[in-house]
Specification:
132 residues, alpha+beta, 4 strands, binds zinc ion
Length: 132
Amino acid sequence: MRYAFQLSKKYTQEVPVYSLILNREGKIIAESANLVNKIDVTAHAEKNVMLQVAQYEGYRNLSKYILLSTLEPCDMCQEICRLHCLNQVYFSAYNRLKQCMSPKSWIGGILLDEGSQIIKKCFLNCRKGKIK
Ligand SMILES: [Zn+2]
């Protein structure tokens, strides 16, 4: 998770979310930051990594993989996880903008203080006009 925190901070024009897809041996298969301001409004880190793996693997069933994210996946990404049969999700900070409950199998709050501070700092800077 700390690796994801470090990389999330490099994307200063985005909400600092970084996601990884791991195989069951813990090897990183794909990784991405939020690219909402670079690609489109749906280019969330979680969606980006699922797309990378699905394209690489050539199939949509990602049930053998693990998603790790610095922020609880939003409702859109939660649905994409469901469509990809991706049930193992670990995240740090809780997403207060979510409308739907995350599945009970998802595990949140990993290094919660650190993850929450990164997100809070970003939104404080947004309010101060430092980030668009
Ligand atoms: Zn999302």
